[in-house]
Amino acid sequence: MDHKFYMSLAIEEAQKAYNKGEVPIGAVLVVDGQIISRAHNNREESQQALNHAEILVIKEACEKMGFWRLDNTYLYSTIEPCMMCSGAIVQARIENVIFGARDPKNGCCGSKMNIVASGIFNHDANIVSGIMEEECSKIMKKFFKKLRDSKR
């Protein structure tokens, strides 16, 4: 798998979120080299707490594939998935989670805890981190700096 290629698509999604004033996180779900779904955070626009990029790609992939089990899939996320998204990853049986930057405050793929590869649930995913980390981190830092500056 060309992790950088798919992560660059997730970064494009994050940029869409940034442009809308959403926390800039993007995700892409891939099966057998085919992009099944792409999404970005849209909690503010939708006023839905669950509308994280990862949740949206999982939902769309299940709808497209007609099945809730997403075996043999690769989920690319610009930022380490949170507790909610990590739980959804386990429930959907996603096999591989690839993310760019760690989230030391909310990350649940190794930072705060490791839900997706803990060995205590009925499914574990493989984790690859640090793919295009600088680019993924940069858009988040830029977003939160802009947000802080606008409140001054």
Describe the secondary-structure layout.
Layout: H1 3-19, E1 26-31, E2 34-40, H2 43-46, H3 53-65, E3 73-79, H4 83-92, E4 96-101, E5 126-129, H5 133-150
Query: Total strand count, please?
Result: 5
Quote the distance from N terminus to C terminus: 44 Å
Query: Compute the gyration radius: what is it?
Result: 14 Å
Strand order of the largest sheet: 2-1-3-4-5
Structural class: alpha/beta
H-E string? HEEHHEHEEH
Strand content: 15-25%
Binned, the helix content reads: 40-55%
Largest sheet: 5 strands, mixed
Shape: globular
Number of helices: 5
Q: Give average pLDDT, whole number.
A: 96
Report the uncertain regions: none
Q: How would you describe the overall organization of this protein?
A:
The protein has helices at 3-19, 43-46, 53-65, 83-92, 133-150, and strands spanning 26-31, 34-40, 73-79, 96-101, 126-129. The chain is built from five helices and five strands. A five-stranded mixed sheet has the order 2-1-3-4-5. It is 41% helix and 20% strand. The N and C termini lie far apart (44 Å). It is globular. It is an alpha/beta fold and 152 residues long.
